[in-house]
Amino acid sequence: MSFVIDASILTAWFLDEKRDPRVEAAFDTATRVETRAPNLLHYEIRNALLISERRNRITEAMSTAFVRDLALLPIRLEPAGDDASLMTLARKRKFTVYAAAYLELAKREGLPLATLDCGLEAAAVAEGVALFGA
Fold first, then answer.
1. Among 121, 119, 116, which Cα is nearest to 15's?
2. Which domains does the chain have, with CATH numbers?
3. pLDDT tens profile 20-77
4. Left (φ > 0), alpha (ψ -120 to 50) or beta: where does 52 sit?
């Protein structure tokens, strides 16, 4: 079954920051099943890698390898939903538009959401969106 994956899952997996079973389950499933994400995932991942490089946690070569490997995953990047839905959701949940984009996509497509963001998880539940691995 498809689901919406956010940057927190993918960066946690790559940076090995959390040994959360949701990370392993989502990443394992994402290697086999087409997952979805708003097209901003592309930028969020690269920004997280750049910050990790600056903090000397990873090397440029590691970033390059991760971006290359990430491109092999069947993640379909989706355009943003309509502005009214996105902005309404961001205002209602007091989110950034970036966070709201993941929730809006999951809600619009009727898909579970995989995230490590506690606020995003709570908002998903409040909006009737299933959580991946819950």
1. 116
2. 4-126 (3.40.50.1010)
3. 888 888 888 988 998 999 999 999 999 999 999 999 999 999 999 999 999 999 999 9
4. alpha
